[in-house]
Amino acid sequence: MIDPTVLGQSQTFFGVLTTLVVLCAVFCDSNFLNNIIEGLKSDMKARSMNNLNSCREEFFQDIKNTKEKAHGYKKILAGWGSTDNKDIVADAIDKFELENILLENDVINTEKEIDTIFESNTNMSEQIFTPLYVFIFCLVVFLCDESISLLGSYQNWMPTFLYIFVTFSFALCFLLWFFYMERSKADNILNIKKEDKIHLRSNSPIKVALFDGVTFLLLFSALIAIYATFSLHFNLTEHVYAVSVFVFSFISVLLISFTKIKSYVKTHKEYTRMFIFRHFIFLLVASVFFTFLIAVIYYLNIAPIYPSFFTESVLLKNLLIVFALLNGIILPFILQIISYSRHKKYIDTKIEAIKNRVDQSKETLANDLNAELEAIVQQKGKE
């Protein structure tokens, strides 16, 4: 006998997964994921600071030694050369000291950047609001799973609805994590301007939602029409149907939401709970509507539709579990680790650049002094 529920024997596992996800949806001591990340962040930040402090010590010691040698060199040349020679040597030393002041400022700025990029990345809203979306999604799955038996002969359409809904959600979360990786780059964090945080949209939210909804409807309908056209020439199986619905749903959200979320990120800098709830409701309603649209195509026999496929196969159950596990726990952990690793690499690159500038400054001073020494020797030889 086929289990009338979607989750079947995986309900307990899905329930435990939902409990873990809700713990990751708030910044508190119960957020086990955030506690692990904080420890890793502190370790990477400390290593960057230690590397910078080590560079600072070497930097000041090199400056001190080079200055002592340069001034000793200056005394030697002072007894040989003319007034012009003395001025040239003094200018070379002044140039060296000016470069060192600039390098000291770079070290101080790098220290500030370490604090800024590591702390800013910790407080980015995707780390909380994406698990929040997943948690609400899981509640809807449980409600649908428990109420599926109430639909009677129409119960096959509930899995179809969940299949479309989870595909929409995959696309939305994909975009959220994509823009998170862009926003968490060190260059983007350090270039945020306060005056860019406030943005007033000229159109009302109702008009914007209506426009998005109509565009969404036309795009999805066009894709369904393509599917129906292909069905006239090819024998489309159940698996082709499942893949087609997944691709249509994913592409629809991806194309419509990409520019919207990109614009939102540029103007608001951070997501809000209202942003998450608004998109959740929109995708929920859209899933209901497109399930109804596919049902109409099925009953009118316009194209081959297999509503029972998602009820009888384990595909939907696996997709639901993978979505919750991936976007609620795995990606928030892995992507933050990748982000912190990029920050450390960015800081290490800056420190290496400072070291190279110190070496170049020392070499420039030595070349200037040696060149002047040669000029003095040649001058003395002519005399």
The unreliable regions are 192-204
Tally of DSSP helical segments: 11
% residues in beta strands: under 5%
Helix content estimate: over 70%
Radius of gyration (CA) equals 32 Å
* Main sheet summary: none
Helix and strand content put the structural class at mainly alpha
Give the strand tally: 0
The mean pLDDT is 73
Would you kindly provide a written description of the structure presented here, covering whatever features stand out?
The chain is mainly alpha-helical and 383 residues long. The chain has helices at residues 11-23, 32-80, 83-122, 126-147, 157-183, 186-190, 205-231, 238-268, 273-299, 309-312, 315-382. Helix 4 runs antiparallel to helix 11 and helix 5 runs antiparallel to helix 9 (273-299). The radius of gyration is 32 Å and the shape is elongated.
Concise structural overview:
The chain contains 11 helices and no strands. It has helices at residues 11-23, 32-80, 83-122, 126-147, 157-183, 186-190, 205-231, 238-268, 273-299, 309-312, 315-382.
